Amino acid sequence: MSPGARYPPDLDRWREAARIAAGARELGVRLAVPGAKLGEIAEAVEASIRAAGAQPAFPANLSRNVEAAHFTPDVGDRAALATGDLLKVDVGAHLDGAISDTADTVEVGGGRRHAHLVDAVHAGLAAGVAAVRPGGPVEAVGRAVAEAIRRRGLKPIVDLTGHSIERYLLHAGKAIPNVPGASDAVFVEGEIVAIEPFATNGEGRIENGPFGHILRFRRPPPERDAPLARLYERFRTLPFTVRWVPDAEERAALERARRLLQSYPVFLERGGGLVAQAEHTVLVGPEGAEVLSARSGGAR
Length: 300
Prior knowledge:
The mean pLDDT is 96. The chain has a five-stranded antiparallel beta sheet. By secondary structure, it is of the alpha+beta class. The chain has a single domain (11-215, 268-291), classed as Alpha-Beta Complex (Creatine Amidinohydrolase), CATH 3.90.230.10. It contains six helices and 15 strands. Helices cover 28% and strands 26% of the residues.
């Protein structure tokens, strides 16, 4: 361990959360077949995380086609996947606030019409992970990601980034851009970060769409408001969804406390292009990145 390194004292818990998240991600990819309902996929993915002894770090994001991120099914959502949909499966798991965040993209029905997008974002992820060095520039990751995606005739999305992760903080303050020239930060040995490229055949930027059914507490609610206090104790600063709040009193409390809550819009590709995403949680080790959320049998 180098001087100045800041490894979590419970690093094994972070590794276990990442293993659980990776399994949930792979389950979501397997379930993404024509006719499958988004609500049922989300519930199955989140249930697998709980069954493994963790909690979801955020609602399962199941964004399709021009949706880049931040869609999760609402209560009673009956929307189903169609052959050819380009589905992003973005999941997170945490153990007492030790978080892992990971994603993959699947073309529903097993076709190859969108293979160039999926292959490009996988190449961008691999290049970005390989560029991580302790003390090295975050800029190197953005350059590697962008070059890998552009080499395949596609664009990285410039206003979506990876991020540092800390306990109970999914986005902990350090952005990991997917293009060069957007960061002067450096990696610190022992920190946990998410490398998260997005590739598109569109404009390469996003715009806000409709509400994606994801909320987060901006600050703690008053202790005298018992239903909100219970919800804050449960979710802390992590994103959640009304699907996870079956209690009618607690749902009513959320409705009256919108000023305390951040609402997440769906991010749409501004030019109407299709979007692919891939993501790993990595540990900045003494020699480079240790991929914590590797898929079974490999790190892609």
